[in-house]
Amino acid sequence: MEYVSTRGSAPALDFEGATLAGLASDGGLYVPREWPRFSAAEIAAMRGLPYAQLAARVMQPFVGDSLSAERLQELCEAAYGRFSHQAVTPLVQLDAQHWLMELFHGPTLAFKDVALQLLGLLFEEFLGRSDRNLTIVGATSGDTGSAAIDAVAGRAKVDVFMMHPKGRVSDVQRRQMTTVLAPNVHNLALEDASFDDCQAIVKRMFNDRAMTDRFAIGAVNSINWARLMAQVVYYFATALQLGAPEREVAFSVPTGNFGDVFAGYVAQQMGLPVAKLIVATNVNDILHRALANGDYSQGSVTPTAAPSMDIQVSSNFERLLFDLGGRDGAALATQMAGFEANKAMQLTNAQREGAAALFTSCRADADEMAKAIRWAWENCGELIDPHTACALHAARIAGIDPSIPVVTLATAHPAKFPEAVERATGRRPGLPARVGDLFEREERCATVPGAYEAVAQYVAERASPKADG
């Protein structure tokens, strides 16, 4: 399996190369040269497999010769053995049509664990084959940071520098990052910055020759293909339980950076019968505007009770635009350069029509978010977090055929956002026992100006050069 850049001019890489590279050298994102596809019979044969075995089966075509089937299976067993629920991503039924896919049973109580527990092991596996050191630079609006830090803390040959916008993540989210005191973990709270500012710094560092000549810069954000690949698995796991491949399933996905919902698109390209992907945003609704009327224009970020969706530049949307635009890297490079210069662009007719075939979208404001939390509790006895609530609101008004099950992705444990949940329901969700002492742990975090030069200097003074010796 070869990986090509969405912008067309970076060299093609194998799976190992794409995993360690993260962002392509031309500023694009890596995608497989072609989508592997399973037949209906092959999908049916996956029924009943334990999650780790299913994961290895679904991901093997993407891995190619970089890992043997046996080694991939071992890594999946190790990654998903740390989850508190043996089903890893269990389903909960809400009513006759609606279901929750619980993605928060990993170590840091968020869906990012499903991919990042595996990605940490992949980094260790591939770095162990050489004398190479990896400097991971990441941006987080809350959950990616803690999941990535948990996955790589203490691992050899890896340093991680994780930026978050100061004061714009929940207390639980922050502490899950800053209480990990491993020497290879560096937390940076960026002053006067949004998540989009943090993400822009990450992308700039990948294209800064002064940094990339000294350090092997890697990514844990969903710009890294391996992370998206691991997220494809739970679409298969859920659809199989609900009748696939004979029965279609729709999914409602809370999203800001478009990675989680793009994984659903990949699953559909691989042969999974996905009836519709509902893209749920909060008031930071660039994706809703893009899908509804082709307007991909950046606004200012409005802080909400769902901070992981407080995003106005959705990095993974580029992967969809590339695929729907005939995989013309040069054309997309021009289109994205226009967006980066003007903070706005219009989707082409081909991109709009291609998206409309599978995607629909919905925007939830603060009242709609709170009403969805209240509905889930009062009618179903389920406490859900604000991000999940945006998607549940979207799922319930999307008008999907009643014969088609609609699965809302529950992306975070409600205890990560206790104030919002308590305001809506009167009940304050408690942290699971395995993280119950979080507020008693020591924190370590550096406050850094939200400017590229300050971040680059901080990283350069502490990271290991790209090769030993």
Structure, explained:
- It is a single chain.
- The chain is of the alpha/beta class and 469 residues long.
- The protein has a domain at 91-108 and 227-425: 3-Layer(aba) Sandwich (Rossmann fold).
- The protein is built from 19 helices and 15 strands.
- The strands form 4 sheets. It has a 6-stranded mixed sheet with strand order 3-4-14-9-10-13, sandwiched between helices. Strands 8-5-6-7-15 form a 5-stranded parallel sheet, with helices on both faces. A two-stranded antiparallel ribbon has the order 1-2.
- Helix 3 crosses helix 4.
- The longest helix has 17 residues, at 225-241.
- The two termini are 32 Å apart.
List the helices and strands and how they pair.
Blueprint lengths: L2 E3 L9 H7 L8 E3 L7 H5 L6 H13 L5 H12 L10 E3 L4 E5 L9 H16 L6 E6 L3 H10 L5 E8 L5 H8 L6 E7 L3 H12 L2 H4 L4 E2 L6 H17 L7 E6 L4 H11 L4 E8 L4 H8 L1 E3 L19 H8 L4 H14 L1 E3 L2 H8 L2 E5 L2 H15 L5 H12 L8 E5 L7 H8 L20 E4 L2 H11 L7
Helix pairs in contact: 3-4, 3-10, 4-5, 5-6, 5-10, 6-7, 10-11, 16-17, 16-18
